[in-house]
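tool_call: predict_structure(chain=1)
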Amino acid sequence: MPQPFIAVSTPEPHKDRAKRLLQAHPEVRTLFGNTPSSFLWVLAIVALQTAMAGWASTASWGWIWLAAFTIGATANHAVFVLIHECAHNLIFKGSNANRVASIVVNLPAVFPAAIGFRNFHLLHHFKQGELEYDADLAGPIEARIFGRNGFTKTLWMLGFFIIEGVVRPMRIKKVDLLDRWTVLNLIVQAIYTAFIFILFGWPALAYLMISSLFSVGLHPFGARWIQEHYVVHGTQETYSYYGPLNRLMFNVGYHNEHHDLMMVPWSRLKRLKAMAPEFYDTLYSHASYVKLLLRFLFDPKLGLHSRVVRPSRRPTTEERAAVTLLPAAKA
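tool_result:
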């Protein structure tokens, strides 16, 4: 039988908690801002993955798969985290500079995802749990197809890169995918991909593509998408991860902290938690991605419907200004 989402009529919890947190700890405002040095990580990861692609051109397929699962998945997951930082304008001050940085760091991912992610992700923050706007949610058809069965959930994770990047954007009718930055993202990505193919051949491209599929799919890093909003404890709808992998993924595990105060860059999220422990120590959190991944795959009570949803509402003027919604989103 189809399973229902967890339907609520209450607002998302982060705006209220942020208000209370700022009242109790006004000093956390000193953490707001950007981290320009993050761009050095952008350049380092692009250089690393380009070099690894060159290595893959002469490696056996067994070594290519192993390298993609270990080095490649780690690097390309970091790619998507840094794209996330750019989406919030947390590397440079200006939006356009962050858009350019996101296009650069997108290069090893093969698929042009940076600008599309930016357009959808900010809506996820302001419209959390609203099926018409929140592309982080599985749609009703997607949830019904993959459900709670271990085999189908495994297939879902194997193909999550395509589902997140292609299927869900088509479901969200409120945002127009095409703008000049999306086109630029596509052109730059095509040039880099052609460069890799001409210089190193198919094995190099395969290494980068497999790295991307693992980085968000059937891999410990893929558990991050379960960690963030899948309900595993009471009615709590957002969860943080405080395990050791935060060192490799720019503290993106601090997800409650990030949703509460989006103006805090990755380099200061740990300090945010330390400055306001009473707001976070009482929340349920995750410590192991491997444990969470296995639980998601094999626990029949946990599935794609294990998400909080709330009625969709039209964006407010404030939200339109903050998210810079495209014309289709204003309807």
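agent: The beta strands are 6-7, 240-241, 285-286, 308-309. Proceeding to next step.
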